[in-house]
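Instructor's aside before we start: the two examples that follow are unrelated to each other. I chose them only because their records fit on one page, so don't look for a connection. First example below.
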Amino acid sequence: MNKNINKLYMMGKADSRMIVGLMSGTSLDGLDVALCKISGCGLETRIELLEFATIPYTAFFKNQVKEVFAKKLASLEKVCLLNEWIGVFHGRLILDCLKKWGIRPEGVDLIASHGQTIYHAPTWLHQDDLFPNATLQIGDGDHIAVTTGIITLSDFRQKHLAAGGEGAPLAVYGDHLIFSKEGENRIMLNIGGIANFTFLPGNLDVSAIFSSDTGPGNTLMDSYVQQYFNTPYDKDSAIAKSGSLHEGLLAALTSHSFFQQPFPKTTGPELFNLEYLRFAQNESGTVTLNHEDVMRTLNRFTAVTIAQSILSCCDPNQPYSLYSSGGGMHNPLVMEQLGVLLPAFSFYTTNDLSIHPDAKEAVLFAILANETIAGNQLTFGNAQSGIPSVSMGKISFPD
């Protein structure tokens, strides 16, 4: 038997596993690295977040990825080169973190790498009947494994696609396993570049679990301030707060057919980008609107589409607790508006559930890896609900 296969076999039988979860989102802020100790599997999963760091990306890294990110036309050579380069780069960042934390690579069982999304193409967006849902993440798992010497699971989204999903959101799997609680209806809201949520029913009815993207999270706001204010993001909502809401522009932004499509659905910066904004400004006659007012309206756009999506899936006669995570939860104006738009909801963060809000997505990929190695087949839902019951992640050996 191959020694790595034997290692996986013994790992699956062990009481617990040390897994490094990685997340690199569409905001290109940096690489989230979460060192997790995970015991059990399925609904018996228990997780301890031992260490966490976000390694900010340099301007050089961001510019390299932006050459191919969310573009219909891009250099195939560049995509090829970045796939290998990002894998090695992420591997080195992992080693740097482990050294800083005083952990030898031999003490880590697995790496779970999300990779870097460069294009997301569900059928509703590409509208070519010849082709299925598709998505592409780069940052090759074999290069991570060889660089670190640690068995690596990567490319999680492809199995989800193959089983009938859209490749996202994948958070629903980990949300169900570690956050479901009897007697409490929970909304797990993650606001990254794109916002998504998972509904976890308090009656623990697996068939009622639900997850979907809602539309833009930070992506439009970040792109706008990067272009017009030379800053990576609107810190403390300062720019948006200094502007005024323009109802005509908001109406144009929310008029896209995406918002009328049934749930579940996924999207990305392939749709919600500055070109989308320019079209909405042309439609609403707001091309000369001052930048602060545009930012205030984009902020409202994010909050309104999140709230409307959640409300459309919730029973007004039931109580709900909303647990937020992701970079957008640090935007005070977005969160303030959500409180107004969802007055009956109790608001928390995943920190109240012992998971650092910024680490949540990296932790969830560690959980997916744990299920693939140690789990049994669980019923999460079905392909029609966007939650096929599958294990995910391609396995790369270091030698």
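Example two begins here.
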Amino acid sequence: MEQSLQVDILKELMRQLDEGRNIDAGVQYRMSTTSYVCTDQAKKEWQAFFRDHPQLIGLSGELPGPDTFITMEDFGTPLLATRDKTGRFRAFLNSCRHRGARVANDARGKASMFTCPFHHWGYGNTGELISIPNEDHFGPIDKSCNGLIELPAVERAGLLWVHPQPDRQLDIEALLGTELDAEIASHNLGDLAFAGSTTIDKNLNWKLANDTFGETYHFQKLHKDTLGRLYLGNNLHLTEYGRHHRFITANGAIHGMRELPEEQWALKRATFVLYYLFPNIQMVCNEKSVSLIRIYPDPENTGHSITQVAFYYTKDVMEEATGETELSRDDVYDAERRAGGSPNLAASLEVFSSTISDEDYVMGEMQQQAAENGLLKEIIFGRNEPALHHFHNSYREALNQPPLVPVTS
């Protein structure tokens, strides 16, 4: 991000703090609570936003070297993502072409070959069908056209993108827009190492989960003993990029910036920078770390969602904390890791995920209960919550729904 833009953003946040005024969109909106409970709408969302929409599955550090892989099933497609021996990122339907069993069952690992546990058909990490046991018994199979079903996959600016449908195109610049695409590239996300992940399973609609990342009004209330000790709350700089946006709020270090010449002002030292990437991604960028939050609906239950949180750090931080630039385990919270020199890193990851799970999402579960009760017909988004205006109007527009209704009295 250009220095002049960083200075402009910091000056705007300083102005809000000095005046005791948060961002002001100049309008309040009402929204029906049916958006969180309507099963017909949920079916349309699942198809449009998850089954037939590009999915960000992680940062490049998830596949740290040749012959590494990850698996997931969060958006309705069993996915096997690999980095082959040449370093190319690929994605496949994680289903054997014989009878459809998973060919990889670990969440992540290192392998150049995948063997179906059912009948031991073997596939390379480039997807080709290599071996069929007792092929003379089974009958002839053309291996050249019976490899794993490949999905469109693009690695760009340190982000791993997959389309769940094999016949679709994946144009990331068109998806993000030229300006946002270039800005994300400026963060050098491809240099970060994967540090660990956690899953949050809660009884709230996926949009309510996204809502918790949409305003700073609650920081000094709900998070006064956790996040509120670091971030000041009631200040926000928001920039929209089509259906995506950038959300920036100040931490206590912003006051120290006033003592420095503007050419030394550094946005990430005094704020966190959050990118909302339509439809379900919240990506928090700090000076030496990124937290990637991927939020998914439960297609069988509008009042349930799964949040996958992954953590990435610069390699100097990883090496200082663990003695390694890559963690060899998915779970950084185990006793061996704690004893091995990484308690500070594990604690920082735990604090972040616990704040979401035990504070934000607890409020979301209460909101879900109120929506399901049916007596609370509407909720209100304030003038100081424009990121929520943008989020809800974006998916409504994508579903051909009318925009939010302004509050007129």
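The chain has a mean pLDDT of 92.
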